[in-house]
Design goal:
six-stranded mixed sheet
Length: about 170
């Protein structure tokens, strides 16, 4: 199975086995629904969602066959995953982007090593020879994503590349 990290169980809620999950997964509406399979912890214990609701910043979930707080206490602090094959979407996941070669003006400018989250938009971290470039992950800067050939094509705009003084100074 190809597991994708979607969040973490941060606490229990009430006495009937409900858990609080913190998740910034892009496609929450596709996974947090009745009968969807989640995999919890290092051992990837399969649990099936019974109920889902949003409460404040948390995704609140109960699981089929679990009706008591004592049955979910061990899951507190555990990471939550899904099986990639269970996710039926047309979009591209962050996991698909990391590791792609970044190409600009027909030359390789590095590899996408991370995606930073910000309030405005996500930012690609492209690294080559210990130099990093931060590229906004928005349509104005992304020409094409070619998952088959493992490449992402960047529209180079003056000043976009080699603006990494911060990382070189403070890394």
């Amino acid at each position: 199975m190809d597991f994708i990290y979607v969040g973490e169980i941060v606490n229990t809620h009430g006495i009937k086995g409900e858990v609080r999950i913190i998740s910034d997964f892009k496609y929450k509406k596709e996974i947090f629904k009745k009968n969807f399979r989640l995999y919890v912890g290092n051992l990837k214990k399969e649990l099936i969602i019974n109920t889902y609701r949003i409460h404040k910043i948390y995704d609140m979930v109960t699981f089929i066959g679990i009706n008591d707080i004592n049955d979910v206490l061990d899951y507190k602090g555990q990471k939550v995953y899904i099986n990639r094959a269970d996710l039926k979407i047309d979009g591209i996941l962050d996991e698909d982007i990391i590791g792609l070669d970044a190409i600009s003006k027909e030359k390789n400018i590095g590899v996408v090593v991370d995606i930073l989250k910000s309030k405005a938009h996500d930012i690609l971290v492209v690294e080559k020879n210990n130099n990093r470039n931060l590229i906004p992950y928005i349509n104005e800067f992304i020409e094409k994503i070619d998952l088959k050939n493992k490449k992402i094509y960047i529209k180079e705009i003056e000043g976009l590349l080699n603006e990494n003084w911060y990382f070189n100074t403070f890394s």
